[in-house]
Fold:
Amino acid sequence: MITEKQTVIQDAGVTWTKAYTGGTWTAFCVTPTGRIIAGKDTSVNGSSSTSNIFFSDNGGASWTRNMGIVEANAGPVHWSALCVTPTGRVLVSSEDGKGIWSSDDNGIYWQACVGGYWGALCVTPTGRILAGNYDGCGIWYSDDNGANWAQTGMPNGYWGAFCVTSTGRIFAGNMDDNGIGYSDDNGGNWTHSGMVTGDWGALCVTPTGRIIVGSRGSNGIWYSDNNGETWSQSNKTNWSWKAFCVTPTGRILACVEGNGGVWYSDDNGVNWTQSLDGLWQSLCITPAGTVFTGGSGTSGNGTGIRRSDAVIGTKKDYSSKPLTGAQARQLVAECKEYVQELKQS
Structure:
């Protein structure tokens, strides 16, 4: 039987539209209710705003400034990362000494969890929260939803990125030339992978299990197909890469720190094509497949929030069998028509 089904005609990441005008946006997350939460960096222009967490309940069509957050020391804040725990608690980290904060009401009101300088956040399959320290104090963990924190077996270094594979192996990117570490015991103990040097600030895992890592030291994008034992370089051999995300169909998106724009790869991270220029430093993807990127500039292209939507359409599905005589004749006719179009092109 021939049917028509919804399918992705064009994946997100090719065309972009404005979702919010102005500002520098350093972190995103999506809560279980579908709310998108974004961290706005008020440290860029010396702003003393007391609210720099925004949220959207309509897929990014409009944004509301959160009036409930109490900004640490009533000063500028650079938010590093956002994450959501299995209980729905939202955490946000600050790399300029304002600590880690949490919210239990979908990002409306926030309370301080721990002070200090923090970069990447990660939630493991067991619900453990990992946090990379930005003050040289290694990787920390919390098993009680962020209330209390302890140091892991990685006591030193600046850590700016995490990812978790389907096997549960956790990778962490070091920001002070100590390569990439991994843990097979839920973040308790860490071992250096085959990439023992370099500054790495972006990590992701593709649907095939390939691990992608982006350098923060102008060494480009690398990938591993053997769980981090060895690494190969993609066709992007330079620049400093800030963030990755992966669409439901497997397209990988990456943004470059500085003025390098947003890029995408449709061959599992080997080759890359630019889709947006300007200064962009954060990425987020919703369950519906919409991608958001946050600007890192103060004016012009590369400020505010941009969005890219997957183009959904219908196509005939010939996979169901058996076909009736009429359906078979229809299929043959359509194939002949397609062949004729190819000849004419």
